[in-house]
Design brief:
By secondary structure, the protein is of the alpha/beta class. Helices cover 38% and strands 17% of the residues. The structure holds nicotinamide-adenine-dinucleotide and uridine-5'-diphosphate (UDP). The site of uridine-5'-diphosphate has 14 residues, from helix 5 and strand 8. Belongs to the NAD(P)-dependent epimerase/dehydratase family. UDP-glucuronic acid decarboxylase subfamily.
């Protein structure tokens, strides 16, 4: 009997790659999305497959699935700072009410559920690199709080369902992930810099560019998530690439990769923008025998080739 998995956020960047992975591994995949930040074209290649089914639905509303369900992966949520600043209430709702609905569904179906948490639960971290036992440094009432606190609540309610109802739960703390199917205008640094290079605009560094991030290629992230789902570990696990870089050096790398003649310009640093971020992945290595394989040079080239393949109309479409 083919096992069935429900993936929320299926039309988004990570959700669509997870749909591909589970289809390739022989599962029956039900994708769910309300397209608030996603795009149907990310799953267009799956729509006619017999093992794929798509349901357009807002997960903050009651979720009804016919028949059995073996696994749920809850990835629905705006993920880019400018997205969640634009739709703060929906962000809070999908992390809280949406997660509650999905946990209820998992309980009703006796399914195992994995929820997508984030390095943002560490806020602007005072511990570096970030280990899973660090409680974080989040400004609850700051503009980013809507995302960070929704995700922290999501972790709490997931552990409560695990402890109180004995539900099989998994929590992945995802660090900055990139690759094809990111939205060119979603405001995250990689699409932002690559879009600027392709349009012949200067690259906008926020602040002095000395803040750091550690970027993980999407195929590595998906492999880590897959392994975590099939592990027997219920506490949060960091999945990310520990190779850390300042945003300033990163802009230089992108200028070289894209061959643009543009320069960098400096803009104001958004409030509560974390100064440093690097996952400690010792736990994932030990538990899952997982570590990232794709280096930044290779991953960035693949991502740039994807953005280059987009139409001029998409390249110049402005959302903000
Ligand atoms: P994305 O915006 O590309 O995808 C999110 C998807 O969720 C979109 O298709 C959107 O339409 C859908 N969605 C949002 N609210 C919904 C709702 N109420 N009902 C149904 N669908 C809804 O973002 P992404 O980068 O693919 O992120 C996916 C998940 O991974 C998110 O939960 C995010 O918090 C988490 N995450 C991502 C990263 C990263 O670097 N990409 C890092 C940490 C955590
Ligand atoms: N950033 C930047 N220029 C941009 C977009 C982002 O300098 O045009 C910076 C941003 O301030 C942050 C880093 O790049 O320090 C990563 O931002 P992103 O939105 O990709 O992710 P997050 O802050 O959630 O890690």
């Amino acid at each position: 009997m083919i096992e069935k998995v429900l993936i929320t956020g299926a039309a988004g960047f990570l959700g669509s790659h997870l749909c591909d992975k589970f289809i390739n591994e022989g599962f029956h995949v039900i994708g769910m999305d309300n397209f608030i930040t996603g795009d149907k074209k990310n799953i267009a290649h799956l729509l006619d497959l017999p093992n794929f089914q798509f349901i357009e639905h807002d997960v903050t509303e009651f979720i009804k699935i016919e028949g059995n369900l073996d696994y749920i992966l809850h990835f629905a949520s705006p993920a880019s700072p400018i997205d969640y600043l634009k739709i703060p209430i929906q962000t809070l709702k999908v992390g809280s009410l949406g997660t509650h609905n999905l946990l209820g569904l998992a309980k009703a179906k006796n399914a195992r559920i994995l929820i997508a948490s984030t390095s943002e639960v560490y806020g602007d971290p005072l511990v570096h690199p970030q280990t899973e036992d660090y409680y974080g440094n989040v400004n609850t009432i700051g503009p980013r709080g809507v995302y960070d606190e929704a995700k922290r609540f999501q972790e709490s309610i997931t552990m409560a369902y695990h402890r109180f109802h004995g539900l099989e739960t998994r929590i992945v703390r995802i660090f900055n992930t990139y690759g094809p199917r990111m939205r060119l205008n979603d405001g995250r640094v990689i699409p932002a810099f690559m879009g600027q290079a392709l349009r012949g605009e200067d690259l906008t560094i926020f602040g002095d560019g000395m803040q750091t991030r550690s970027f993980c290629y999407v195929s590595d992230e998906v492999d880590g998530i897959y392994k975590l789902l099939f592990s027997d570990y219920s506490y949060p696990v960091n999945i990310g690439n520990p190779h850390e870089i300042t945003i300033k050096d990163f802009a230089e790398e992108i200028i070289k990769l894209t061959g643009t003649n543009q320069k960098v310009i400096y803009k104001e640093l958004p409030q509560d923008d974390p100064m440093q971020r690097q996952p400690d992945i010792s736990l994932a290595k030990k538990l899952l025998n997982w570590e990232p394989k794709v280096g930044r040079e290779e991953g960035m080239l693949k991502t740039f080739n994807y953005f280059k393949s987009l139409s001029a109309e998409e390249l110049h479409k402005s959302e903000h």
